[in-house]
Amino acid sequence: VALNQYLILSAFLFCCGVYGVLARRNGVLVLLSVELMLNAVNINLVAFSAFTKQISGQVFALFVITIAAAEVGVGLAIVLLIYRNLRSPDLDRVDQLKG
Amino acid sequence: MTSQNVAFWILAIAMGGGAIGVVASRNIVHAALFLVVVLIGAAAQYIVLLAEFVGITQFFIYIGAIAVLFLFGIMLTRAPMRAGDFDNDQRWPALVVAVFLLGVLVALLVDAFGHDEIKLTDSLLETSRTGPVADSIFRNFVVPFEVVSMLLLAALVGAVVIARRD
To answer: What is the DSSP letter of B115?
Structure first.
């Protein structure tokens, strides 16, 4: 298989994630898009690991999966706190610092 | 076309559709379930690439834990279960940015790695199964491994402290 097809699939997933982060208003949906981007990175790491026959890529993918789990836990806690304080999970409503 | 190629394209089409569903769905629960499609597809791609341990870990952690955590998050923020508008007014600039980024990335990747092939051979299978992964983690990456365990503990405590009602 060509290396490129994995890289381009990953680029597509990453760009979908970028669009989601920029265009979504709901905090949970923004976190979903961030997960999409992290997965795109993982696909790259595993594809390069198979391409260079080095195991380090897989180890780094495992670390990224671990960090993603931690990030989702803290992120959802923050979204929950925003919901509790503003009665809405919309990130556009978080504008207390606006002058 | 090899069987790995056929598997890749089937999974890639499912993952692409799922990714579009995540960012375009007008129902928040459907978006979370589309993400599960992408995650399962990624796990299967890892197994096609002979990275069996990463594939199984992806399956357990992402689909077993993270997807359920997202569904709990949707439930706790009382998101409407019916279709609604969850986008802000930056939809078209965001689309322009994403398409531009995709174009740049694809041009760059075709230019840089246009002729490279991944050779999925028996020797690769020998070097990429679970045993060598474990050797690498506990020999070369043992310090990052311990740091990540501390980070998970900190994230756990932090999530409890942030979300606690007091």
So the answer is: T
